[in-house]
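Q: What would this chain look like folded?
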Amino acid sequence: MKPKILVTREVFDDVLDYLRQHFEVTSNQDDVQLDPERLAGLAADKDGLMTALTERVDEALLSRGPKIKAVCNIAVGYNNIDVAACTRRGVMVTNTPGVLDESTADLAWALILATARRVTEAEAYVRNGEWKRWYLKQMLGADVHGATLGIIGMGRIGQAVARRAAGFEMKVIYHNRSRLDPETEDRIGATYTNKEQLLEQSDFVVLQVPYSAATHHLIGEADLKRMKPTAILVNTARGGVVDDAALVKALKDGTIRAAGLDVFENEPALNPGFLDLRNVVLLPHIGSSTESTRRAMAMTAARNLVAALTGGSPPNLVNAELKSG
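A: My prediction, written as C-alpha cells:
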C-alpha cells in the first residue's frame, strides 16, 4: 500500500503526476485556504505533508496526525513550521533552497528601481489622467547608479543581489551574522561592516534575512532614524523583520525617502497605513513568482517528500539530526 500524503495548496499537474507514482495523494487543487481544523482533519491519516507558507505546522497539528513522518515546505523559509516540535516527534522538515535565489534577487532589484524612480506612482499618475504637461521637476527620483547599496543578510539571495549591483557601478556593503570569506567578498564586490554603519552609509538598504525570534523587528524605529533621509528600504525577506508600524511613521514623516516591500507583518492583512502612502511600492509576496522558479520549488519539495518517505535522505533536510529509514 502506498503512503498517503496531503498537498495543502494547488500545485502543477506534472508535480502531482510525479507524486502519484509514489503516493496516494490528496491535493487541494481548488486552492482553498485551509483553516487549522480543516487542515488537521485532512492530515489525520497522512504519512507526509507538502505545505506552503500559509499552513501552520505545530504540536497541535502533529498530535492530530500521528503518522506524519515528513513535512516538505514549498519555500526556502519555514517559519510556518515548528521545527522543534517536528524534531521531538521524529518528523523530517525540508525546504527548497537554491532554486529561487536568482528570481528573488531580480525582484529585489525591481523594487530598488521602482522606488528610486517612483515607477508605480508615475504610472498611476498617467493612468489617472493627471499628466497634462512636462516640467523640469516632474517626478524627481533618486539615482541608482553610483549609489551605496547596503545588504543585511548575505546568504545566497543576498549575494545574488550584490552581484547585480556591479552593472550600476554601486558601492556594496553588507552585514551578516558571520563575515564571508575574502574570496567571496571579492567575487561579489562587497565590503563587510556593522549594522549601524551600514544603515548610516547606505542609499539603499536591502533586507534578505530569514525570519526568527532573533530577527523579529530587526529594523525598528531607531534603525530607521539612523538611515539617511534620502535612503530607501527594500524588504524581500520576511514580514516581521521590519516593524511595519514604525516604517509607516517613518515614511509619513520623511525619516526615509521610500520603501519597496514584498512582505509584511501579518500578511496578507498588511498595515492599512501603507495604502495611504505614495512613497512605498507594495507587492503581494511574489519574490519567487516566475513560472520556472515556482515549478522548480514545487518539484524540489516533491522530491524531498519522496526521498523522506521511501527510505532515502531528503537533500534539503532542515532538522539534519533526523535521518529517514
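The mean pLDDT is 96.
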